[in-house]
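Intended use. Records like the one below are meant for learning the mapping from a protein sequence to its folded structure. Do not use them to infer anything beyond what is encoded.
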Amino acid sequence: MKEIIAIIRRDKVPETKQVLEELGYPSLTIQSVDGRGKQKGAMCAEMDSEMPESFCTAAKLKPTPSAYALEHTLPKVALYVPKRMLTIVVPDDVVTKLVKAIIKVSSTGKHGDGKIFVAPIGGAVRIRTGETDGEAIA
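Structure written out for the chain above:
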C-alpha cells in the first residue's frame, strides 16, 4: 500500500476528484493548506487562478517582529499560497496510473501547480469492521 499526497491548486480539485472516481478510487481526504515553493509565495509577477487581481496591492501586511526578525534583515512578508492537499491510500500497483492522472488534470504549466508525494503505508484498519490492509482501503 502507498499513500499519495497531492498538493494542488484549489480550482483543480473537482477535476482531480472526478478522474480519481473514474479510475475507481473515489475515497480520499481533502485539506485546505497554505504554503510556498521556490517563488517564496511571490505570485504577483505571474497572476493566475490562485490569487485575486487585487492581492499584490492588498498584501501590505506588517508582522510583529520576532527575535529572529530583529536580528536579521527580512526583505518582505512571507506570503503563503492557498492550496488543497488530497490524500489517498491505494494498492502499490495503481500508484503510477493515479499519479499520472493527477498530473494530467492538475498541470497548467505555470509555477504553483503543486507537488505529489508517495509514501509507503505499513498497515490500515477499517474501524467499523476491523478489516485490515487491502480490505480496509477497498
